[in-house]
Amino acid sequence: MTTPSRIYLVRHGQSQANAGGMTLENPLIPLTELGELQARAVASLLPPTSVAIWSSPFRRTLDTAAPYCTRMGRIAATHDDLREFETVDTVQLRGSPCEQRESVVAGYWMKSDPDHRSGPGAETFREFHQRVARARHEFLPALPDGSIIFGHGMWMALLFWQLWGFTAVDRISVGLFRRFQLGFPTPNAGVYCLRQVTPGEWLVQADEAAMRAIADSVVDTLVGRGPEVLVDPHRTHGVTLDHHDRDQVLGGIRDPIGAKGT
Fold first, then answer.
1. pLDDT per residue as tens digits for the range 52-63
2. Residue 44: φ, ψ to 5°
3. Which CATH number belongs to the domain containing residue 125 in this structure?
4. This prediction's pTM
């Protein structure tokens, strides 16, 4: 198999959790209608020649990949190491409001303990770090050139954190990573390109043009429908339908579980 020189990473479209919806089990969180529009927009912008399409096994990533897979006449393969960080036990929190989930997530990060597990169904940060490192060392180098991965914001942030040399796992590194991740621009349907320059050394580049084109496409669709079509604020997360608020769509539907990964 040819060593990859280029891999595309695509964050999933807006999810119900990103939009402040009630807590669902992490693998089952669906896209909102806005997220579905983002998925269709990104499908038209990705290269038409991908030789491999991969996804996290979570519903929101598979649903984001679906329009592109339809375009390509392919089915996305899944890999467990691409899962998002299980910061909290969403089975225990199932049905709880967003505010309760945010409080539990905030409490987790305040501990800055790489070995703390917030519930039976949650991961420790150390486990998450090891999983992303395994994907970095074993999964990514085995992919064919031009592969596309549909994944998650926090997973991507930790991958980039590791690629830039931050490999320690202790209380200090947990806190530093959280600060980095909160400030790192990973909008829903964001597109990034990894370029391998030497074995194990990757350059990370955001595809800003694609992200702006996705925002334009989504907002044009919403504006064209008129203000009466999408009436549930959780379905659009405040996207205004009577003007082109592209900055909001591009930059960031980011709540404490959404931007922080889900």
1. 999 999 999 999
2. -80, -10
3. 3.40.50.1240
4. 0.87
Beta bridge partners of 75: none
Residue 185 lies in a domain: yes
Burial class (CB in 10 A: 0-12, 13-18, 19+), 38: buried
Longest pairwise C-alpha distance within the chain: 53
- Residue 100: how many CA atoms within 13 Å on its side-chain side? 12
**Model confidence at 69: pLDDT above 80:** yes
Which residue is it, tokens 């404490």? 256
Torsion of CA 194, 251, 97, 132, to 10 degrees: 10
Tell me which DSSP letter residue 140 carries.
G
In a domain, 203, yes or no: yes
| 66's tokens | 């679906």
| 150 backbone dihedrals φ, ψ, rounded to 5° | -100, 120
